[in-house]
Design brief:
Layout (H helix, E strand, L loop, with lengths): L5 E7 L4 E4 L5 E14 L6 E13 L1 H6 L8 E15 L2 E15 L29 H5 L3
Parallel strand pairs: 4-6
Antiparallel strand pairs: 1-3, 1-5, 2-3, 3-4, 5-6
Length: 142
Amino acid sequence: MSINRVIISGNLTRDPELRSTASGLPVLGFGVAVNDRRKNQQTGEWEDYPNFIDCTMFGARAESLSRYLNKGAKVSIEGKLRWSQWEREGQKRSKIEVIVDELEFMSSREGGSGAAYTPPVPIPSAPEIDVSSSIYDEDIPF
């Protein structure tokens, strides 16, 4: 048995980009910065080291959330990891990204620290999408 589940909490590194596949399926792409704490061997002090994680969300929820997300927003994300490989201009490229299943806002809409309560945004339920199909390879225009 194998499990592919990831939970991250961090800040959006850029405004999300909403695109559509050739068949019209909304695709939302954004980045999340998550800090690791490590001890600096020279100073003995603890320091934060950022990790930048690409995230992708599909369907009606992606389209709805695109109106509420912006750079700097603190979010908690649950999803699964997906590794993709492609060739561009003769060079093989690959990346690991999080395919987002659930997203929760962790800060107020004014960009606060998360202490203020933000009521959940009603989001229409998304249809089940088989991301292992050829949707990603051929339909996404980027």
